[in-house]
Amino acid sequence: MNKKNVLSVKNLNKIYSKNRLKSIHALKNLNLEVNEGEIFGLLGPNGAGKSTFINILAGTTIKTSGDVNVLGFNLDKNPRQVKASIGIVPQEVNVDPFFSPRKLLELQAGLYGIKKKDRITDTILKLVSLENQANSYTRSLSGGMKRRLLVAKALVHQPPIIILDEPTAGVDVELRNNLWKNVKSLNKQGVTIILTTHYLAEAEEMCDRIGILNKGNLVALDSTINLLKRIQTKIVTLVVNEKVNIENQSLNSLNVIDNKPGQLIVSYEKSKLNIEELINYINKQNIKILDISTDDGNLEDVFVRLTKN
Ligand code: ADP
Ligand code: MG
């Protein structure tokens, strides 16, 4: 069954030209689609081109070439409909310090031409847990509250797609969890989420699918589950009653990380070696295995491999 896509990007390029001699190719022939109702994560190190991508969607950066379609609206031909379809939470916190959250949301609603009776200001304030600060000066809000206010601002016109650019960069754990709870609950209500991050654990935890961007190239695009499956290396720590006689390549793909009386740490390729073969090898030496723990790795492994030059 084919899922409906809400965002389609074809051969997207962005070249920042400083002058005739110096230019930066920030996005190189980017192709991707985002499906309705999913949480899609764009992952990549600093400078990968994540914000450039988001800013093109937001209309604040002009693409060099390529096609962008949002809910069937073409960015070149129907920029207003594209803008109405997405809510952007930018990377930089930029809210007027002298307005209250309520005033700010009302102004934003005005910008989108939403009639007074159709506004949902209080619902949004509650959703981001700012109802108690609704009438305070924004400058008196904590960093975390300001970020939640940015999320609120993106929700004013009830867009079917929300895009968050590094929403948790430099925020504490509590706020991060709170923010993700909000994002997940929006997603449950049917809002498609696109987020960028350079934190792998975050993408792993939040996203249905992940694209990995490196120096403007999309180096991976797959479901989070499939990306995790690509992880080959397994690390095993064994507590033993003696020193095991074992070395690199004693078994197919085996790499000895540490071997001393009482403890053996090895890694191997999952596709090439089975843990039973390792256990048999040790048992043959009449050595007792007292404890065993394994580490399956995480997206970090995939990421490091894929973004290596
Ligand atoms: P990310 O968000 O993944 O950290 P960016 O999209 O901000 O990456 O940047 C991608 C590349 O484009 C970087 O090399 C950056 O220096 C460059 N870049 C970003 N914005 C501009 C700009 N306004 N002018 C020139 N170069 C830019
Ligand atoms: Mg960025």
Key words describing this protein structure:
309 residues, alpha/beta, Rossmann fold, 2 domains, 14 strands, 31% strand, elongated, binds adenosine-5'-diphosphate
Short description:
The protein is α/β, with parallel strands linked by helices and 309 residues long.
Please describe what this structure looks like.
The chain is an alpha/beta fold. It folds into two domains: 5-229, Rossmann fold; 233-298, Alpha-Beta Plaits (2-Layer Sandwich), CATH 3.30.70. The protein is built from ten helices and 14 strands. The protein has helices at 50-58, 79-85, 101-111, 121-127, 143-155, 173-188, 200-206, 224-229, 275-283, 299-307; strands spanning 5-17, 23-35, 39-43, 65-70, 73-74, 86-89, 161-165, 192-197, 209-214, 217-223, 233-240, 255-260, 263-269, 289-295. It has a six-stranded mixed sheet, with helices on both faces. A four-stranded antiparallel sheet has the order 2-1-4-5, covered by helices on one side. Strand 1 and strand 2 form a beta hairpin. The chain is elongated and about 80 Å long. The two termini are 37 Å apart. The mean pLDDT is 90. Adenosine-5'-diphosphate binds at residues 16, 24, 26, 44, 46-52. Adenosine-5'-diphosphate (ADP) binds at residues 16, 24, 26, 44, 46-52.
